[in-house]
């Protein structure tokens, strides 16, 4: 039942955005009785939070291409593809996190989980000598991914097909030169 | 009259956020007749757009510290200070740009204007030989500033006092190594 309801939330969100999302429409679309939806999820904020929490349970693992720059570039291409997918579910979830305290908290949990899973990219690069020992994973991952999010979510510019590779290359180059070994 | 009304918008937005912002409260706070406010600005979206457009008319110039890394770091400190100021007017304007089409368009104009003004930082660094000729200003500026916005606006983590300098240093290092000379 959870899967049907969350599928319906994603579909409604993609079609109508946060402003058009209602518990009643989700219940109708999912075929689950609306009283059940209200009892289990409470409101739109609860539904959005559960979509985000479910995204964190998906077994996702970061790319493993054999090189740091390759892994970071593949990660950025995944991010750009997700952020520009139609219907725009991920973009709508980020927008919703500015509106609903529950969605905000769930979105923060998801960011923290995703960046933690990605730390293995940096560990591997240190392991095979591509990066100096003591390179800090989190600021390197933020440096690599932030330009892609910034371009699409805040600047709201059309996707730049070169940006995922360029941001990854830039972060990897700086990391090899020790930009993230101390502060 | 415009200055009083826009001051009132910023004050109401800082105190109550987008959801608490009303034309009537802005009119009352500014001492301007509400019919006048409705006639000139239309609605909350029109008021927000004018606050953002006014921010673009402020004669702001980017820092000029004598070095690329210094300029980028000073810029990042300005951004971090603005994003964490109380009341949180800038953060509320960014959040509002997800809600109002007029605020969204005005926010895009402001981003474009600010990044265009900052290109002189890169021109100066090329001029005194700190950066290779042909370094592209915009992706370098995005690489330097994006981590600060990403950390505060999307990840919504507490401000990291080391991040403005670190992101600036990282972008400057990559730029010196030619990361932004081609794509």
TrEMBL record, chains A, B:
SUPFAM superfamilies: Homeodomain-like, Tetracyclin repressor-like, C-terminal domain. The keyword Transcription regulation applies. GO terms for molecular function: DNA-binding transcription factor activity; transcription cis-regulatory region binding. Residues 22-41 bind DNA. InterPro entries: Homeodomain-like_sf, HTH-type_TetR-like_transc_reg, HTH_TetR, Tet_transcr_reg_TetR-rel_C_sf, TetR_C. The keyword Zinc does not apply. It comes from the Bacteria. This is TetR family transcriptional regulator. It comes from Actinocatenispora thailandica. Residues 1-59 form the HTH tetR-type domain. Keywords: DNA-binding, Transcription, Transcription regulation. Pfam families: TetR_C_11, TetR_N.
């Amino acid at each position: 039942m959870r899967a049907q309801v969350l599928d319906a939330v994603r579909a409604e969100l993609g079609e109508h955005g946060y402003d058009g999302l209602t518990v009643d429409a989700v219940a109708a679309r999912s075929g689950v009785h609306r009283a059940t939806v209200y009892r289990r999820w409470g409101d739109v904020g609860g539904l959005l939070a559960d979509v985000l929490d479910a995204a964190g349970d998906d077994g996702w693992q970061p790319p493993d291409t054999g090189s740091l720059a390759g892994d970071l570039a593949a990660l950025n291409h995944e991010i750009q593809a997700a952020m520009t997918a139609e219907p725009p579910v991920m973009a709508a979830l980020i927008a919703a996190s500015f509106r609903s305290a529950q969605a905000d908290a769930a979105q923060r949990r998801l960011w923290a989980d995703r960046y933690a899973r990605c730390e293995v990219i940096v560990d591997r690069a240190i392991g095979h000598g591509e990066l100096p020992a003591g390179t800090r994973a989190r600021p390197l991952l933020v440096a690599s991914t932030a330009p892609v999010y910034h371009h699409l979510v805040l600047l709201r510019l059309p996707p730049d097909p070169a940006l995922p590779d360029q941001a990854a290359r830039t972060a990897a180059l700086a990391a090899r030169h020790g930009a993230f070994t101390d502060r």
